[in-house]
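quick q for whoever's on today - can somebody do inverse folding on this one?? i tried earlier but teh output was garbage lol. tokens:
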């Protein structure tokens, strides 16, 4: 079973995966891909103990070539057991997601966190990072209206979800609490 957790910045993807990981097992590596071994499933992507650091597969796939490699590794891992991955950059890869879903049971969970909540979380994170780095502009960062083009990403992900449904991929739209429960069900 492949579970792909999707949503815009600040929607709660990494928080849900952090909760699934719980007590962390050592990070393992397969090729250049890192992750966590959990009872019954693997998590793809680094999840540092420091919650201020980025997490998920976005750290691993900054280039299009790297995303192609990442999907190959996801496929290899899916052949040996359950796995979950999340990330914003990989969420727009409709064609590769459809190909994986043809080979393995796959569920895409899109988080329904309201845009206003996502924006507030992203602004708060940016303000903390700016403040912690010693910048004098910490308050200005907290007042940003559309950090990291979150509004545009939010709209694009809604279109991606519709495209996946049309292609026959199982897509569930859930709030964070329901998504955590559903992930646990799927990854048993």
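ok took a stab at it. sequence:
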């Amino acid at each position: 079973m492949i579970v792909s957790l999707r949503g815009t910045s600040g929607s709660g993807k990494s928080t849900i995966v952090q909760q699934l990981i719980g007590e962390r097992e050592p990070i393992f590596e397969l090729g250049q891909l890192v992750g966590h071994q959990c009872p019954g499933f693997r998590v793809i992507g680094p999840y540092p103990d420091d919650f201020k650091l980025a997490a998920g597969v976005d750290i691993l796939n900054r280039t299009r070539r790297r995303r192609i490699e990442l999907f190959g590794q996801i496929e290899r891992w899916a052949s040996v057991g359950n796995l979950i991955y999340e990330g914003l950059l990989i969420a727009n890869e409709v064609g590769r997601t459809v190909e994986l879903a043809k080979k393995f049971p796959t569920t895409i969970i899109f988080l329904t966190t309201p845009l206003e909540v996502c924006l507030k979380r992203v602004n708060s994170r940016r303000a903390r990072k700016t403040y912690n780095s010693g910048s004098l502009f910490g308050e200005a960062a907290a007042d940003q209206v559309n950090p990291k083009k979150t509004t545009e990403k939010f709209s694009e992900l809604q279109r991606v979800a519709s495209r996946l449904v049309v292609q026959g991929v199982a897509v569930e739209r859930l709030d964070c609490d329901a998504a955590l429960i559903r992930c646990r069900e799927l990854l048993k």
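fwiw Helices lie at 13-21, 64-78, 94-103, 115-132, 138-142, 150-166, 176-186. also Strands lie at 2-6, 27-30, 33-38, 41-44, 82-86, 106-111, 170-174. so keep that in mind when u check it
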